[in-house]
């Protein structure tokens, strides 16, 4: 199939690539899963890497890829109890040899050429760590130099802000976590089968919602046109998605935005909450997961406090959640799914928010100032 040379029928590559995500997720999943089970052929190198791995894992990455790594930290620890440390790749490179853990190392990079992440990989290789590279370019330097390559299938991403490459990274990292749980017998076969079936539905789930998300987020972005500062809040596995939403808004729309754990708001950042500084709160929930329900109820409590304080709140919550709707200024609905799949779904409306905030300000969203697709030098 010839490569697309134009974003048509979309106005920008970023919007086209947001819409590409159901197909790229399906393609990424197809490499590892068939008929609700892991494929023996394609998964064998990853399983071998997991079997040979140390008792700890370090993830080194930068930017959006680091946020994907933060999600993976919670997936791996919650599903199979493997201790995980997520490092900025640019900082890992300069750690002393004595400080490096006896751990296996995962590097994550869209291009597979990011300078600081490649340096981290080479340092890990030099001291004998087993390494695994998750990149979007199967022939990249990282893919070649790592012990094992586990590429995503997002295809070329032309817009500088990462969209489809980010959700494909999340999917690969979830698959890796499930394989790790299976290999360590930390998950029952029936539960694994259920999670894989849920995973097989994520592409269609996003596809069903894209058009409604586009229209609703476009309208919401218009109502927030005067805001210059945003605080993004999430708990647990949703905190890295809050950080990713804030990063997208910075790099796409040139707006100041910060991502915080929801529980940290009252420990200082609440001083920033005022007219002109909206809160973007992640309030989705998996009703089958007790921990997810507990997290959600705490988010609701914080919403009540922030509403009493007069805050402007934009929530990403389950479709039809009237409890959230009554407490917020605006709400974007996301179809319910399992807790560990919610990040893949809920980040898409945040991508659309940054897109519309950018184009409403006349910004070339595909080529934000001072940024490049791959950071090839520090």
Describe the structure concisely for a colleague.
With 378 residues, the protein is of the alpha/beta class. It has helices at 13-19, 21-32, 40-52, 63-80, 89-92, 115-126, 141-145, 164-183, 189-200, 202-223, 239-253, 290-308, 322-325, 342-360; strands at residues 33-34, 37-38, 57-61, 84-88, 104-109, 131-135, 148-149, 229-234, 256-261, 279-283, 313-318, 330-334. The strands form 3 sheets. Strands 4-3-5-6-7 form a 5-stranded parallel β-sheet, with helices on both faces. The protein has a 5-stranded parallel β-sheet with strand order 9-8-10-11-12, with helices on both faces.
Describe the protein's topology.
Elements lengths: L12 H7 L1 H12 E2 L2 E2 L1 H13 L4 E5 L1 H18 L3 E5 H4 L11 E6 L5 H12 L4 E5 L5 H5 L2 E2 L14 H20 L5 H12 L1 H22 L5 E6 L4 H15 L2 E6 L17 E5 L6 H19 L4 E6 L3 H4 L4 E5 L7 H19 L18
Parallel strand pairs: 3-4, 3-5, 5-6, 6-7, 8-9, 8-10, 10-11, 11-12
Antiparallel strand pairs: 1-2
């Amino acid at each position: 199939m010839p490569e697309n040379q134009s974003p048509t029928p979309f106005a920008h590559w970023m919007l086209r690539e947001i819409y590409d995500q159901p197909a790229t997720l399906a393609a990424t999943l197809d490499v590892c899963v068939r008929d609700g089970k892991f494929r023996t052929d394609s998964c064998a190198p990853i399983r071998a890497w997991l079997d040979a791995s140390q008792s700890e894992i370090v993830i080194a990455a930068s930017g959006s890829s680091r946020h994907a790594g933060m999600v993976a930290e919670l997936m791996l620890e919650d599903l199979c109890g493997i201790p995980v440390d997520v490092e900025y790749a640019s900082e890992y490179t300069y750690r002393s040899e004595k400080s490096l853990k006896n751990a296996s190392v995962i590097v994550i990079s869209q291009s597979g050429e990011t300078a600081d992440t490649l340096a981290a990989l080479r340092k890990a290789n030099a001291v004998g760590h087993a390494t695994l590279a998750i990149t979007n370019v199967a022939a990249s330097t990282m893919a070649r130099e790592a012990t094992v390559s586990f590429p995503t299938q997002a295809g070329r991403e032309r817009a500088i802000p990462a969209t489809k490459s980010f959700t494909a990274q999340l999917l690969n990292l979830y698959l890796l976590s499930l394989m790790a749980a299976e290999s360590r017998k930390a998950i029952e076969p029936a539960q694994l089968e259920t999670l894989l079936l849920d995973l097989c539905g994520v592409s269609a789930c996003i596809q069903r919602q894209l058009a409604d998300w586009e229209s609703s987020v476009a309208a919401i972005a218009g109502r927030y046109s005067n805001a210059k500062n945003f605080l993004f809040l999430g708990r647990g596995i949703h905190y890295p998605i809050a950080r990713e939403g804030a990063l997208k808004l910075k790099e796409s729309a040139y707006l100041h935005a910060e991502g915080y754990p929801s529980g940290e708001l009252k420990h200082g950042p609440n001083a920033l909450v005022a007219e002109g500084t909206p809160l973007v709160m992640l309030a989705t929930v998996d009703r089958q997961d007790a921990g997810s329900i507990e997290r959600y109820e705490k988010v609701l409590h914080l919403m009540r406090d922030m509403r009493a304080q007069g805050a402007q709140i934009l929530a990403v919550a389950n479709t039809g959640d009237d409890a959230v709707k009554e407490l917020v200024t605006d709400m974007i609905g996301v179809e319910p799914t399992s807790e560990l799949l919610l990040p893949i779904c809920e980040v898409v409306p945040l991508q659309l928010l940054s897109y519309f905030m950018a184009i409403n300000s006349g910004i070339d969203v595909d080529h934000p100032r001072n940024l490049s697709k791959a950071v090839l030098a520090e």
